[in-house]
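Handoff note, outgoing to incoming analyst
You'll be picking up this chain. Sequence as last confirmed:
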Amino acid sequence: MSRELCDDTLHQLQRVLGVSFRNRNVLRKAVTHSSFEGGGPAAGNERLEFLGDAVLKLTCSWYFYETHPNLAEGELSAIIGQVVSEKSLASAATEIGLSRFLLVGPSLEATRGRELPSVLADSLEAIIGAVFLDQGLEIAKDFVVRRLKLDTLDTQEYLKETNFRNHKAELQELFQKTRKTLPEYRVVSEDGPDHDKTFTVSVYSGDVSIGCGVGKTKKDAEQAAAEDALIRLITF
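Most recent structure output, in case you need it:
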């Protein structure tokens, strides 16, 4: 695909996306793979992809926080994890025919790399980043909601697909029915460097530890500890 042809297709792409860019160069950047004409990462869409990934997670979190007040923190995390997955993004990119608008290098073209799920997902993230830069956060949020069809998503079905269980909520409900106190979570240890910590958490009933869990975040460790406690309480 030549740059001249890309100029024509950019106009078509704007119609497909439903966004009229003030700066078309930022959209051109978003659909330019690092392999195109040997430009490398600096000439491709990788920085926009990085930005778009952050905007995507923020806007999804913002949307579900506003529209689903009854969803617990863990449920929100599970749903958003599915929504921002490579599979979900690649599907949305395929639906709008994004592959035909991408600028890719000859080797990627020869192997039909423009249709790879990873390439499509990354390019859609780059476009989200471009929309944010050119149009602002509100328009970026509307774009994400519209293109990923968040307003029609069945959140309960998503939770079933991920086999998600909120063990902390289940344990708290059990305590409310059978005990006077609520479970208390305490961090037992933190291992590893700051950028890659592992947390160990114990959950207590009074002064007695009834479960222990490990995770890369305190929240994950607490969920694991609650699951361990539920297993122990149900078993014994």
